[in-house]
Amino acid sequence: MRAAKDYIVFSLDVPSLKEAEQYVALLSEYVGMFKVGLELFISSGPEIIKIIKKLGTAKIFLDLKLHDIPVTVSRAMASIADLGVDFATVHCGENKEMLEAAVAGSRGKVSVVGVTVLTSVSGEDIDAAGFCPEFSSNISLLVMKRAQMAMEAGCIGVVCSGLEVKMIKENFGEGFVALTPGIRPFWEGMNKDDQQRITTPAQAIENGSDYLIIGRPIRDAKNPKEAAIHIAEDIEEALHSLSNPKAE
Ligand code: C5P
Question: The dihedral of CA 235, 182, 23, 51: what is its sign?
Answer without folding.
Answer: positive
